[in-house]
Specification:
This protein has 18 helices and 10 strands. By secondary structure, the protein is of the alpha/beta class.
Length: 524
Amino acid sequence: MTGTSAGPATGQAQVPTSAWAARWIYPASVAALVIAATLPIALFSLPPLVDYPAHLAREFILHDLLTTGRFSAMYRLHFAAIPNLGIEAIVLPLLFLGVPVDVAGRIFLCVIVVLLGLGIAGIHRALFRKASYVPLLALAYIYNPVFMYGFVNYLFGVALALIAFSWWLRLRNAPWTRTQPFLLLWATALFFCHLTAAGLFLGLVGSYELSLSLSPIQGEKRIAALSHLVTLMAAPVAAVAILYHLGPFGGGAPADTYSLKELMAGIPQRLNALPSYLSAYSRAADAISLIVLLGMVGTGLWFRRVCVAWPMVLPVLGLLAVYLIIPDSWAGTQYIAYRIPVIVLFLSLASVDIAWNRPLITAILVASLVLLRSGATVEAWAKANSAYRPMMEALEKLPPGSTIYVGVNYRQSFEPQLRLPWSHFAAYAAIRRGMFVADVWADPTQNWIVQTPHYKTLADLRPLNNRVDNSPRPAPGHDMYDPALVSGFDYLLAVQPELYQGPAAKQAHVIAQSGNGVLFSLHR
């Protein structure tokens, strides 16, 4: 089945066909699944997502600089055309409306979940022209390693890109005067959310249209179709390029460069890592959900009930190819390849339909997977919040205006840190006590705030994550007891300091400990 076909015959539809059922049962099911998927965010005030506290603290500081100015000694405003402002679009307006910052942050996380679900379901509906429970399987995989890392601007941008693409699929046959402004506006908006989101949207539109133009049915019209595609994409691609040039990257240092040999060398490792991108908080839940997912697809193939939107094969395979060869870091963005596989999964679910005569079975399986993985997330977040609570109480007793940094120690893999992340937890000290936290991002190429000179010097000293089995002694830039750090900061939040291979600073003494995190005072 192609993406422009009308869908399977009556009797094979995924949802009941009565007028009442079409109006209420499916929307109610979607709402229930979305509620289940957002349950962990609603239940816990401290989402244990690695980068999330630093994003939240930055919004708090940005709002303060625009209102009271209490942080003006530490930070100053830096407005620019920055492709990393997704959270600013939601949280900052909520703060101006008086919503507490922790509530505003969780609203933003819920918006990400809802938009991802709507985007994937919208693409599926545009391709198959019917509602289905199959794309809602994506809600079972909302809590994935990318979400656990707290790449919220990226996920928000991706969610909007998927929604924009679903609208494009409905609009693509409209007159050029309607489609071109649509592409231009969406590409521009997505650029400001996250640079990757703009690239994803334009890549999806371009590869989908290319797939159609290369199909055998085009025949002699192929050249005209390709010419139309180039004309269609020229303006939005140019707009993104111009915005990028006008932004902080435009006249800065040259972009990172990689040889083809370097890029190809990592392909085997990335292929081996693919299954890990479906993992979350429970190995048992991960295994069960994978078995059920493969079972659903395998059974559908066996009984010839699987329908594929063939024009989506090129976009999905193209995105997979990008994952295999793209650099891990570029233009200030880290873990680029790490972020892609889950989007491949989401697009695959949007591009496939399983046309059962009994849709209730599909609905039950989807609901079971969403509840299983959401339940595992609730359990893990409950443990994390229990560990966070004593440390938060300790942070709230620290003197306002003091300084703190974080040192994370781990062995072999950083992945276990995702279950109880401390890397940016100290950012809450900026929100609760007005402290300077070295882990709150204020990069002029990434953010609307930058540190004042004295505090930038301190921030530049902060250690990176220290893999303790990587070398007999911590490398420069990883030493959490570096004398410059100890003399410049008042407090240290250390993760597993017992693994650290360097001697502890003499003046460091423990004032709080919870889970594998230890809060030191560095006062002399």
